[in-house]
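Why should sequence recovery work at all? Because a backbone constrains its sequence more than one might expect. Tight turns favour small or flexible residues, buried strands favour hydrophobic ones, and helices have their own preferences. The token representation captures these environments compactly. In the example below, the structure is given first.
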């Protein structure tokens, strides 16, 4: 799971991405697991979600 977090953060360093794009770049096969991990990371303040554009980003 720690490796998945690092993969997500490295994917988001380039530009804000949608969930499907994050899954493809971070090599995560399960959308529900990816969403769950993103929500946990949001609660920890590592990532943010732009509701207007529907993209995840690093604050």
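From this structural description, the recovered sequence reads:
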């Amino acid at each position: 799971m720690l490796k998945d977090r690092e993969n997500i953060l490295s994917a988001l360093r380039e530009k804000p991405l949608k969930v499907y794009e994050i899954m493809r770049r971070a090599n995560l096969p399960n959308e529900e697991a990816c969403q769950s991990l993103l929500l946990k990371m949001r609660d920890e303040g590592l990532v943010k979600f732009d509701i207007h554009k529907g993209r995840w980003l690093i604050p």
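A few observations help interpret the result. The two ends are 21 Å apart (CA to CA).
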